[in-house]
Design a protein that fits this description.
mainly alpha
Length: 316
């Protein structure tokens, strides 16, 4: 039954490979649990969903991980009910756990520049150009790592500074290459011999955009390694991953006044609520402006009090 469900979400629902893999792991783990309870995954009791959540909480899993597993198992049993493999869904009435909203980690502007400098320190010309291109591409486009590693030259338009990426659910969107990203990619592509006509920025077709030392498509693990290595070289202390570049992309757009709906489109988010987490920086910036400019702002009051004190001392 698990294989049927995985086939269904792969071929019919077109979920991303990462999501499919996570679902398979979550469902297999539940199968191990329910087997240990002397039950069959096709014949659970009605309280087994809630019991499993308690089991996961006792095991020390955080609410977000538990909620993800519940979503996977609810979908699995919905499919099982529709295909008449089971008569009810034990996770249908299981509520999501309340979880603390954590703000996304992101880079400050100066940290991005430090990492760019660190990316260009390799003694090997190809490595230097490739690493700089990866950093600039991630920050310029806000692409997910899965979208980045699957990118081919066919969908990169060096003349217009755009790329067509395939996101979650095989949904395509246009991302934009800034001046630094275009310059980095141009130098990197030249080193690979990717241009069939440099004068009009025309690339050869069917080639992976980012490659490893053997000129084969780089893996997600490979980019994770490079990102962490560059952050270490730049003496960045925070936890770093390719997704931090995506968070930085969105946060800096919001900070500079971009409309949140445009940011939503550029990130490929289906729901605006997913994008709204990035407004935390905008709110912080507004507070600073208020504190400095408004007559009743605390910073302004401090200045006013200082001025009053000086005036009193003069009058004395």
């Amino acid at each position: 039954m698990i294989k049927e469900f995985i086939s269904y979400i792969s071929n019919i629902e077109n979920l991303s490979p990462a999501t499919i893999k996570a679902y398979e792991i979550d469902i297999t783990q539940f199968e191990d649990y329910i087997t240990a309870q002397n039950m069959d995954i096709c014949d659970p009791d009605k309280n087994r969903g809630r019991a499993y959540v308690v089991f996961l909480k006792d095991a020390g899993l955080d609410p977000s991980s538990i909620n993800r597993k519940v979503i996977a198992l609810r979908g699995f049993y919905d499919f099982a009910v529709k295909t008449k493999k089971v008569s009810f869904n034990p996770f249908e009435r299981v509520k999501s756990l309340r979880q603390e909203k954590s703000l996304p980690e992101y880079f400050q502007y100066e940290e991005i520049e430090k990492i760019r400098e660190a990316a260009g320190q390799s003694s090997r010309e190809f490595i230097k150009l490739r690493d700089q291109a990866i950093v600039d591409f991630l920050y310029s486009t806000g692409c997910r790592i899965s979208e980045t590693v699957t990118l081919d030259t066919d969908v990169v338009d060096m003349y217009n500074g755009t790329a067509l990426v395939c996101g979650k659910g095989n949904k395509e969107r246009i991302v934009y290459l800034g001046d630094k990203a275009l310059k980095s990619l141009r130098e990197y592509f030249q080193s690979l011999g990717y241009f069939c006509d440099l004068s009009c920025n025309r690339l050869k077709k069917g080639l992976p955009v980012f490659v490893n030392l053997t000129k084969k498509r780089i893996t997600e693990r490979g980019i994770f390694y490079l990102i962490n290595k560059m952050a270490d070289n730049a003496d960045i202390k925070k936890r770093v991953s390719p997704h931090v570049y995506r968070h930085s992309f969105a946060t800096h757009l919001i900070e500079e006044g971009a409309d949140i709906r445009y940011v939503q489109e550029m990130l490929g988010h289906e729901s605006l609520s997913t994008t709204q987490v990035y407004t935390h920086v905008g709110i912080g910036r507004l507070k600073q402006v208020y504190r400095k400019a408004h007559p009743h702002g605390s910073l302004n009051n401090e200045k006013s009090n200082d001025q009053r004190t000086k005036l009193r001392s003069i009058k004395k």
